[in-house]
Amino acid sequence: MNVMRVAVIGLAACLPVAAVAHGQSVSFDEAAARGHALYHGVIALDGPAHVGGAMLPASAGACVNCHGARGQGGIEAGVKVPGISWRMLTQPNADRPAYESGLHILQAIEGGRSAHGHRLAPPMPAFALTDAEKEALSAYLQVIGTEADQAQGVLQDHLKIGAVLPLQGAGRSRGERIQAGLRERFAAINDAGGIYGRRLELIVEEAGASPDSVVQAVDRIIEQQQVFALVGSFLPELPAASLQTIKRHRTPVVATLGVPLHDATERDLTYLLPSIESQLRQLGGEVRAQCDTEKGLYVLHAPMPGLAEVIRATVANTAGRAGALMQVVQSPAEALAVLREPTERTVIALASKGTVQTIRAQMQGTAAPICLATLAAFSGLPQPALNDSPDASTMIREVVGLPLPVVALSSDPAIEGDALWTVLADVSARILAEALARTGRVVDYEAFDRALHSLQGFEPINGLPVRVTSQQRHGVAAAYIWRGVSHVRTE
Ligand code: HEC
Question: In the predicted model, is pLDDT for residue 287 greater than 60?
Answer without folding.
Answer: yes
